[in-house]
Amino acid sequence: MNRDTPAGKASVKHLCEVFGVSRQAYHKALQTPAIAPELPPVRRQSRWLTAEEASNAIRPLAEAHPSWGVRKIWACLRRDGRRVSQKRVWALMRSMGLCLPAAERRARRPMGQVTVPDSNRRWSTDMTTVWTSRDGWVAVMPVVDCGDRMLLALEASKSQKALSLLAPVEHALEGVFGERRNVPADLELRTDHGPQYTGLDCEQLCWRWRLEHTYAPVGRPTGNAVVERLILTLKTELIWTQDWSSLEELQAALDAWLHVYNTQRPHQALDRLTPARGGRRTSGSPRLPRWPADGAQSKTKPGDFLKDFCQPGGGTGQPRT
């Protein structure tokens, strides 16, 4: 476009008014190239294969590679430019009998229960550590009955050797049964695979007291769930509530908490009863003396209750109710 006229060069505004276009359109036209660039031709997608065409393409691949499944056959067809859905390939291969048989799922083996219906059938023990400012790390070892949830022993020790960790178990056995001949034939001791519980000392302890030693599965704390949950309760209600200065201070608090746990604290697994009142002692199990009523103050030390457990002629001779 030439803007020269006999009267001079026409302005853009006058030119746009004459031709009836906006100035924005005029400047836009100046920026547009005269020849549009050539675009590559649009490649039309191939059509979808019919069922017959797909079957004819699938069969040679399946015969050449008998171990290939639906996804590999479908990927090969797509790679060759043949449009077909994976579901169509699966349906056709299934109708032609080219699908491999599915692997049979093994029936899941039922997992056993850590809890038992009666008392004195399975005891469980484990270890946790507590920091004290004067004595350093101190080991805490509970022993609990997986039947009636009775906390049989709760001791602390500076040593983490096998004999120190097994001492609460032996103390509980002495307090509950007194001697070896009173131990039920099917009493089981459940532990994890810690070195203190897999060594000779633990084996000798189980032999002396005629205990059947079982282990929780490796890497599965639920195999020792009763004592693991007890340790969490102990930490939440006692250990984490304050800083501890010495082993003696901690042991005194553990003795008091053992008494509260057995006689005053409601237990969810026992229908909100305490282990002392909600225990499930059977007629074939050694009988235990009655504990004080819930909330009652007792002048007897917590450890003294265990001294009378299940001894012939000891206590009241009445089962716990």
Largest sheet: 6 strands, mixed
Shape: elongated
CATH class of the largest domain: Alpha Beta
Which class best fits the helix and strand makeup?
Answer: alpha/beta
> What count of domains describes the coordinates?
2
How many β-strand stretches?
8
Helix content: 25-40%
Strand content: 5-15%
Question: What is the secondary structure topology, with strand pairs?
Answer:
Elements: E1 4-5, E2 8-9, H1 12-19, H2 23-31, H3 51-64, H4 70-79, H5 86-95, E3 122-125, E4 128-132, E5 136-145, E6 151-157, H6 162-177, E7 188-191, H7 195-198, H8 200-209, E8 212-215, H9 225-237, H10 247-263, H11 275-278, H12 302-307
Parallel strand pairs: 3-7, 7-8
Antiparallel strand pairs: 1-2, 3-5, 4-5, 5-6
List keywords for this structure.
321 residues, alpha/beta, Nucleotidyltransferase, domain 5, 2 domains, six-stranded mixed sheet, 12% strand, disordered C terminus
Plain-language structure description:
With 321 residues, the protein is of the alpha/beta class. The protein has 2 domains: 51-95; 122-307, Nucleotidyltransferase, domain 5, CATH 3.30.420. The protein is 38% helix and 12% strand. Strands 3, 4, 5, 6, 7 and 8 form a 6-stranded mixed β-sheet that branches. Helix 6 (162-177) packs parallel to helix 8. Mean pLDDT is 82; it is low at 281-321.
Short description:
The protein has 12 helices and 8 strands. The protein is α/β, with parallel strands linked by helices and 321 residues long.
